[in-house]
Amino acid sequence: MGKLVVITGVPGVGKSTVVQYALEGTKEKYELTNFGDYMFDAAKEFGLVEHRDEMRMKMPLETYKDIQQLAAEKLSAKSKETNIILDTHCSVLKPQGYYPGLPHHVLKKLPLNLLVVVESSEEGITARRRKDEDIRKRDDPIIEQQHLNRMYAATCSVLTGVPLFIFKNEQGKAKEAGDTLRMVLEGI
Ligand code: AP5
User: Fold this and answer.
1) Which of 23, 66, 91, 107 is the most buried (most CB within 10 A)?
2) Minimum CA distance residue for ligand 1 atom 48
3) Which helix (H) or strand (E) holds 99?
4) How far apart are CA 179 and CA 162, in angstroms?
5) 111 in Cβ contact with 79 (< 8 Å)
6) CATH of 4-34+80-185, one of 3.40.50.720, 3.30.420.40, 3.40.50.300, 2.30.180.10
7) What does the pLDDT read at residue 140?
8) Segments making up each domain of the chain, as ranges
């Protein structure tokens, strides 16, 4: 059984960037895996969407849940063979309201070792989203969702008995944030 670390944060907070820095020089090897990629592959296979950012706004909730479940099953199988850092979300803003990225039916499938929340300032996240706006559509409310994500993450920690680590990816300091995450990874 590999180790499974879940990393979450509002869209554009810099999860992927920080993990890439953290994985430079870790003693143990981890594979950075994106939950959204697994969902997008499944959604494309069924002809449901053409772009990844359409999933949360266009897919009906029941279909969205089914695709989420399929992704969790595939990731569960993969986590048996390799150490994974899973880039995902505590909450996803759908037209109906916030929907949990790690609801109980998903959590049950994922043998977690650590839950991580990355946060940053509203100004920093807005600037990062702007940088990628040609290729990504990320417009969720930052402060409200960061606040809510702490509550969702704390709930996941209680349900699974897994520690929760919360840290900042300050503007222009992604490498330093990566160093912090690396130290935590080496302690599990
Ligand atoms: P996903 O693909 O995970 O979207 P995302 O949140 O936008 O994540 P990214 O990985 O693209 O962004 P990031 O926060 O890692 O930022 P990055 O490192 O690129 O999810 C897509 C969709 O999948 C979701 O909408 C949802 O529908 C679905 N999904 C996923 N998980 C789900 C689940 N569990 N349940 C249901 N649905 C799910 O950085 C952004 C930019 O900032 C870059 O340009 C970078 O260079 C820059 N940057 C980073 N750090 C810094 C810094 N410190 N200072 C300055 N610039 C910085």
Assistant:
1) 91
2) 14
3) strand 97-100
4) 22
5) yes
6) 3.40.50.300
7) 86
8) 4-34+80-185
Nearest CA to ligand 1 atom 35: 101
d(CA 64, CA 49): 11
Ligand 1 surroundings by CB, under 6 angstroms: 9, 11-17, 34-36, 39, 52, 55-56, 68, 87-89, 92, 101-102, 128, 131-132, 136, 138, 169, 171-174
* pTM score of the predicted model: 0.93
Lookup: tokens for 175:
């490498």
- Report the nearest-CA residue for atom 41 of ligand 1: 128
**pLDDT tens for residues 122-158?**
999 999 999 999 888 888 899 999 999 999 999 999 9
Mutate to test the pocket of ligand 1, among 128, 134, 146, 173 (most ligand atoms within 8 A of CB): 128
State residue 84 phi and psi, 5-degree precision: -125, 140
90-96 own/partner pairs: CB under 8 Å, 24+ apart: 90/8, 90/117, 90/148, 90/149, 90/152, 90/153, 90/156, 91/145, 91/148, 91/149, 91/152, 92/56, 93/56, 93/140, 93/141, 93/145, 94/56, 94/57, 94/61, 94/64, 95/57, 96/61
Q: From ligand 1's centre to the CA of 14, what distance in Å?
A: 6
